Amino acid sequence: MNLHSLTPAAGSVKSKKGRIGRGEGSGSAGTAGKGHKGAKARTGYKSKRAFEGGQMPLQMRLPKRGFKNINRVEYVPINVARLQEIFDNYGIKEITLASLYTAGIIKKDDKVKILGNGEISTALTVNVSVFSASAKSKIEAAGGSISSN
Fold first, then answer.
1. Does the reported pTM lie above 0.85?
2. List of residues 6+ apart from 140 with CB closer than 8 A
3. N or C: lower Cβ tally within 10 Å for the chain?
4. Where does the pLDDT of residue 78 fall: very low under 50, low under 70, confident under 90, or very high at 90 and above?
């Protein structure tokens, strides 16, 4: 094996483009493979996202509807019955955002709202973002305690 006989592995080189804009001998002289005139032939050309050649772009043609509240807070709903399941499956008596995250039930920055659907029989200490009134009464009736962060 010599340095002059080294070649790339088969299939690793996709295409042989040649040298663009390097005179008559390159085979793409004159326009350097860019065609004649137009924005794409100019130096520094960069296509804008969603540019459709001067035609009105699709996102501007479609009607806009509704209202998007930028201050909306999204909560992950967890029912009281699910709290009982979490205790049964994971043995977690003190339910916090950190313990739910380590158990893989929520994502890192999620906020949690406890809802009152289902029954609970275990006294749990629950410390999450928000509670519904029925969830509060069911957890406290089972002997648990509530605090929100």
1. no
2. 146
3. N
4. very high
